[in-house]
């Protein structure tokens, strides 16, 4: 807000608190979170387990209702948003999980197509084209009709990335996407995410424990006990 | 409407893909539903054959109006009333003729096995055919001869040699009620739940076999109305003309009365209804198991879909899609198998059991309802498909 009006952050979080449980069991998980992420930025969030990273990610992705404070995604306020508005938010963000979460009964191509089917503007033909194209981009052009069971861990995560990005979302949320992968495939997956996001102009918020991939970040934020401790530009950039 | 169709066209048939991806699981599911369908078909088939076989004698009667004792329960328990009611009936305008009909269970010795077997013996005046059965009416001259009877070739029991012999004009003699009787002809009516088979003879022969039975007490009165008379109106007139000790029914009411007895008063009709209901419930449980297992197996994928922006109703649609697919797939073997089973059951019991279109449609609809109920219960499991809790 200090800067000029022409610049709008993709994500703007102010004084965000979050609680779990009811009555005496009520426990605060997030304390006064303030964070802004600009378009095209790659932000990595680290911190120990249970520090509230995933909670924050689910709030941003519209998977959870914001209780207090302000969370603006592309200028839309999520605090007090209806479940219908949350569904809309979910469609604008791509989500990558720790597990690939691909549908076992669908081929790679069809799994990616599911990311387009929620958007009524695409025809079947267009969906097939876009899904094929992005699978080629992630290097799986020769695995289009494979079922997840016949793909390696790294390949499955690449299909998941294709599914999250096929629709050109403004924001990609990734929750420990390398946790289930060996270091080489983990590295490949992150590099791939970085490359595609740059090509599409997509912003990335990535939660990870994995120190080996910190270097892809423009900025790292560190979270502990529900508090955002540090928020700094990556020294290498 | 067009928009909905377009949406359907671009929608991935996830239910179908999920079901067909696990072939062995699908096979078990289809078997389970087919099993429930076969059970329903058998119960409904037996029930229909109960009504069909037991009303068969009444449907074959050559009468417009029937007089019967109010104490009558079914065709095998007709009780009796005074024959003079028939003469009184003749006074009513519109009545053309009224004839007595005698019926009683008789123990006869099966000529083939020499065992005593109960059959239903029917006697009537051979000059006035009591049945609309051409085969019987052609042989009325035979039963005018003393101690000659006609035998129902569709009777239940070991009668194949008897039937072959009689059809080759080798008469078969045996004993019944201490008299020697001769089978000189055959006809077809069929066994029922009430009797193993039927013997037809003249009223004179009937009374000779049952000497203690009074010729003046008849089991039924068969009334023909004049060609231009309306049997409903004549029946009404008869009701007001005749005393309370005899009941007047048109032939349609008389057939209905038999069906009502087996449906409501006899325990058998209820047992088949109950059996069908049980099969239905078994089906609901089986399909519920299949669908809820499937939901549990895909709960992570469903939660992922929700995180991607799919609504809850999309997941509901998958479950119901599966339910309907299973209903149809399970119905196919569930429909084909009973055709063979009916054939076997009809042979074993001498009862008329066949597949009918109406029953097939009934069971298909029941299967659909069964699967949709199971689907509705299984959708409760979808509540746990919450991406915020899962990841």
Automatic annotation (TrEMBL), chain B:
Primary location group: membrane
Pfam families the UniProt entry points to: FtsX
The organism of origin for this protein: Lyngbya aestuarii BL J
Subcellular location: Cell membrane
Upper taxonomic lineage: Bacteria, Bacillati, Cyanobacteriota, Cyanophyceae, Oscillatoriophycideae
InterPro entries from the UniProt entry: ABC-4/HrtB_transporter, ABC3_permease_C, DevC
Membrane topology field: Multi-pass membrane protein
Full protein name: ABC exporter transmembrane subunit, DevC family protein
Superkingdom field: Bacteria
Assigned keywords, A-Z: Cell membrane, Membrane, Transmembrane, Transmembrane helix, Transport
Cellular component terms (Gene Ontology): plasma membrane
Membrane-spanning parts: 268-291, 323-345, 357-378
All residue ranges annotated as the ABC3 transporter permease C-terminal domain in the record: 277-382
PANTHER family linked: ABC TRANSPORTER, MEMBRANE PROTEIN, HEMIN TRANSPORT SYSTEM PERMEASE PROTEIN HRTB-RELATED
């Amino acid at each position: 807000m200090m800067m000029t009006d022409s610049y709008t952050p993709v994500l703007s979080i102010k004084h965000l608190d979050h609680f779990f449980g009811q009555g005496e069991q009520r426990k605060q998980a997030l304390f006064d979170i303030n964070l802004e992420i600009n378009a095209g930025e790659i932000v990595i969030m680290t911190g120990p387990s249970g520090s509230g990273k995933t909670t924050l990610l689910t709030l941003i992705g519209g998977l959870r209702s914001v209780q207090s404070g302000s969370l603006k995604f592309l200028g839309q306020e999520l605090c007090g948003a209806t479940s219908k508005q949350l569904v809309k938010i979910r469609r604008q963000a791509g989500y990558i999980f720790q597990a690939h979460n691909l549908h076992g009964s669908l081929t790679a191509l069809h799994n990616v197509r599911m990311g387009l089917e929620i958007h009524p503007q695409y025809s079947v033909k267009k969906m097939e084209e876009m899904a094929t194209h992005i699978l080629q981009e992630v290097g799986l052009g020769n695995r289009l009709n494979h079922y997840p069971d016949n793909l390696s861990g790294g390949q499955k995560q690449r299909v998941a990335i294709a599914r999250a990005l096929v629709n050109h979302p403004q924001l990609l949320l990734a929750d420990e996407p390398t946790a289930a992968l060996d270091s080489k495939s983990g590295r490949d997956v992150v590099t791939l995410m970085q490359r595609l996001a740059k090509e599409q102009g997509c912003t990335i918020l990535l939660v990870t424990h994995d120190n080996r991939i910190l270097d892809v970040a423009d900025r790292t934020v560190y979270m502990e006990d529900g508090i955002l401790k540090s928020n700094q530009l990556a020294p290498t950039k | 409407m067009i928009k909905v169709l377009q949406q359907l066209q671009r929608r991935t048939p996830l239910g179908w893909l999920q079901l067909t991806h696990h072939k062995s699981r699908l096979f078990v599911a289809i078997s389970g539903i087919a099993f429930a369908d076969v059970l329903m078909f058998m119960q409904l088939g037996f029930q229909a054959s109960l009504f069909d076989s037991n009303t068969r004698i009444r449907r074959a009667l050559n009468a417009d109006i029937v007089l019967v004792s109010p104490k009558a329960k079914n065709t095998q328990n007709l009780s009796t009333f005074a024959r003079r009611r028939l003469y009184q009936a003749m006074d009513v305008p519109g009545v053309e003729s009224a004839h007595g009909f005698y019926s009683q269970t008789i123990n006869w010795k099966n000529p083939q096995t020499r065992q005593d077997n109960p059959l239903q013996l029917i006697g009537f005046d051979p000059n006035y055919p009591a049945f609309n059965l051409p085969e019987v009416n052609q042989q009325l001259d035979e039963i005018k001869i003393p101690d000659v009877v006609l035998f129902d070739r569709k009777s239940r029991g070991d009668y194949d040699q008897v039937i072959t012999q009689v059809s080759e004009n080798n008469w078969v003699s045996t004993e019944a009620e201490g008299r020697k009787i001769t089978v000189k002809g055959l006809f077809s009516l069929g066994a029922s739940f009430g009797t193993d088979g039927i013997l037809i003879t003249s009223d004179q022969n009937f009374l000779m076999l049952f000497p203690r039975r009074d010729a003046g007490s008849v089991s039924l009165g068969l009334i023909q109305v004049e060609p231009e008379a309306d049997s409903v109106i004549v029946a009404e007139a008869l009701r007001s003309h005749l005393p309370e000790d005899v009941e007047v029914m048109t032939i349609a009411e008389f057939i209905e009365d038999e069906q009502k007895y087996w449906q409501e008063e006899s325990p058998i009709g209820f047992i088949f209804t109950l059996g069908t209901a049980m099969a239905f419930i078994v089906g609901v449980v089986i399909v519920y198991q299949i669908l809820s297992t499937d939901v549990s197996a895909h709960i992570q994928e469903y939660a992922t879909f929700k995180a991607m922006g799919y609504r809850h109703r999309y997941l509901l649609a998958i479950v119901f899609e599966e339910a309907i697919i299973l209903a149809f797939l399970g119905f196919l073997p569930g429909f084909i198998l009973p055709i063979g089973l009916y054939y076997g059951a009809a042979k074993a019991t001498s009862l008329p059991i066949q597949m009918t279109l109406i029953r097939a449609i009934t069971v298909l609809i029941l299967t659909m309802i069964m699967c949709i109920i199971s689907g509705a219960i299984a959708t409760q499991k979808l509540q746990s498909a919450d991406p915020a809790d899962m990841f």
